[in-house]
Amino acid sequence: MKREQVFEFFRRLAENNPSPTTELESGNTYQLLVAVVLSAQATDASVNVATRPFFEHAKTPKQIVDLGEERLREAIKTIGLFNTKAKNVIALSQALIDKHGGEVPHTREELQALPGVGRKTANVVLNTAFGEETFAVDTHVFRVCNRTGLAPGKTVDEVESKLEKLVPQPFRRDAHHWLILHGRYTCKARLPECWRCPVIDLCRYQPKTLPPEERVKPSVVRTALRASSTARTAKGRTASTPKANRSRSRPSRLP
Q1: 8 Å CB contact between 168 and 7
Q2: Does residue 87 carry a catalytic annotation?
Q3: Which of 110, 142, 145, 157 is 20 to 30 Å from 175 at the Cα level?
Q4: Single pTM value for the model
């Protein structure tokens, strides 16, 4: 995309959603960090269902450590990789107590030094909690950037690097939220809903997905194919049926 197209791309997303934010529920920066760690290879909705009950009583690293790994594992067992995630959450909580006075650090290096915290998690926390202009590239952002041609790349690092260079002000702070939400609700993985996309004319994806009412339903296609197949079979059977013998029968010889 050209720079003027990139600006228009984000202008339209901003017009549709002026105040985007994460859909992960949390009451403070520490809970946000825990929620983001738990969200790896899981949906925000599933994480929210798991964290709501224990976040009411576990608001600090010490309270999570006191809860213990076994009870934490039980609380998050509906989330994928819950065994590993429970270990990491307990370990990062203890690290926050030991090295940061129970507070979430403000730098990428310190965040990524915590157990279970990678670059994407650090970017989310830095952006959502501290307002930094970071670009967390998850599966939705990666798909949208490649599919639309906004910032194509073979790796998440490559996509992040391109976003860092091309996203203009005043969209930098909220850019990754717009891209995540666009990928989650419009530019979906299995079937992008192009007919209601605000940036359809800026996107390179082809062929565009038609509105449901303009698409032939798979069941209709299957019915038509079955009917066609049945007709061909019937025609073939008719062609292979021997014709009636119309020749006159010969008189039998007299003895």
Answers
A1: yes
A2: no
A3: 110
A4: 0.81
